TrEMBL record:
One of its GO terms (molecular function) is magnesium ion binding. Pathway: Cofactor biosynthesis; biotin biosynthesis; biotin from 7,8-diaminononanoate: step 1/2. Mg(2+) binds at residues 18, 49, 107. The keyword Ligase applies. Substrate binds at residue 40. The active site is at residue 36. GO terms for cellular component: cytosol. Keywords: ATP-binding, Biotin biosynthesis, Cytoplasm, Ligase, Magnesium, Metal-binding, Nucleotide-binding. This is ATP-dependent dethiobiotin synthetase BioD. The gene is bioD.
Length: 234
């Protein structure tokens, strides 16, 4: 049995990473754990990311660090006056979880280069440390969640290029929120994303998928992979 760590990053904030993480968790086989290294905005957010994943999938979740304000983690930590773990500590904790789970999904915060600690460590650093330190029988994958509309080609190419510059070849792309009535830009982007990145589009998630109940989400999630998006309530 091959165990794996799947790092889920986004091209920016608000592109649908949490719902994409839930969809990946819902369709993974075996024992799955979803880890959020750093969650910000806990003082104002009615539902934290791990709670949303648990609500949608029933999978086990773990949040390592929580910060009050909805800011980049390093900024939130400095403003709160607290010390937070360095990326290397998060990597060590995640590695320790692998023997007990077939898949460990790691959801980032914001985009790939958002600082996860006050020493400048990013999700890119975390992914690179994991890839360079896990046993040979553990596979590390990176999935990039991107938007559907204008600007996504540039943002996605930049994210994929940064990963490749560190020797990390992404497993593929997930479009995090596909509108019920896509326009010309969205339709063209869906064709162009694989062309400009050289990566497959693994899944297209319909807008509103995060509002489904667990039964509906689990039933629909497999259909979002490898096929055009359908309405969330279909």
């Amino acid at each position: 049995m091959t165990r794996r760590i799947v790092v889920v990053t986004g091209t920016s904030t608000g592109v649908g990473k949490t719902v994409a993480t839930a969809a990946l968790a819902a369709t993974a086989t075996g024992d799955v754990l979803v880890v959020k290294p750093v969650q910000t905005g806990v003082a104002t957010d009615p539902e934290r990311d791990v709670a949303a994943v648990e609500r949608l999938t029933g999978r086990a979740v773990l949040e390592l660090t929580a910060l009050d304000e909805p800011l980049a983690p390093d900024t939130a930590a400095r403003r709160q006056g607290v010390e937070i773990p360095r990326v290397a500590e998060h990597a060590e904790r995640i590695r320790s979880l692998v023997p007990d789970h077939e898949t460990v999904l790691v959801e980032g915060a914001g985009g790939l280069l958002v600082r996860l600690d006050t020493s400048g460590g990013t999700l890119l650093d975390l992914a690179a440390q994991l890839a360079g330190s896990v046993p040979h029988d553990v596979r590390v994958e990176v999935v990039v969640v991107c938007a559907a509309g204008l600007g996504t080609l540039n943002h996605t190419e930049l994210t994929v290029g940064a990963l490749r510059a560190r020797g990390l070849e992404p497993a593929g792309l997930v479009v995090g929120s596909w509108p019920e009535q896509p326009g010309l830009a969205e339709e063209c982007n869906l064709e162009d994303l694989p062309r400009v990145t050289g990566l497959p589009v693994l899944a297209v998630l319909p807008e509103g998928a995060g509002g489904l109940d667990r039964k509906a989400f689990l039933a629909a999630a497999p259909r979002w992979f490898g096929a055009p998006a359908e309405p969330a309530g279909a």
